[in-house]
Every structure is written in C-alpha cells, then in structure tokens.
Write a structure and sequence with these properties.
By secondary structure, the protein is α+β, with helices and mostly antiparallel strands. It has one domain. The chain has 3 helices and 5 strands; from the N terminus they run H-E-E-E-H-E-E-H.
Amino acid sequence: MVINPGTQPVENSSEATAAENIEVFVQALHERGIQLSGPATRDSSSDRDGRYGYLLPTATSIRILMPGVELTRVRDDLTASAPCLFVNDRPWWWSDAVKQAAGAINVAA
C-alpha cells in the first residue's frame, strides 16, 4: 500500500491546537484579500486521523481538515513528513491549501 507524503495519521494531535491553526489559516486567506461571510465553524463529523474539521462560510462551504499539531509543523515544515491539510477532501501542504481554498472561494463567489 502506498501512502502519499503528509497524509498519514497525525499523532499527538489536539482539537485546541487545530483551532489555533485554523485562525492562522483564515488570516492567511484575509492576507490574500479573501473575506469570509463569518467565522470558520467546527465540523466534528469530518474529524479523522488527527485532523479536525472546519467549514469556511462562503457561497458554498469549504471543508478544511486541520492537523492539530504545532503550527510550525503544519505551515513551516518543508519536508515530506509535514502533515497535510485537506481542502474539500484533497490533501495539500499549507501554502497550497491556502491557494486552493482561496481559489474555491473565488469560484463560489
């Protein structure tokens, strides 16, 4: 079985850390000129493998699965072992996840 880098289950993950990370993720969207229609909301039914579900409110909801580990591991680690975020069920490393979410929001607008 082949596992794509960054998509393995995330160990020692916490919901509180994922909540902090999603705030930084939303701020990264704001820095790209993306305004949401409200705050990200928790979607616990999407939680899996140490990633915690959030919905970004737009014309259509964008689902994010945010790893609940230190921001530096998720955003700043440039190795293949960095845990990916999932944007609408597809894995992306941080900078690409921001681009994908921004693109999906722009398409939905």
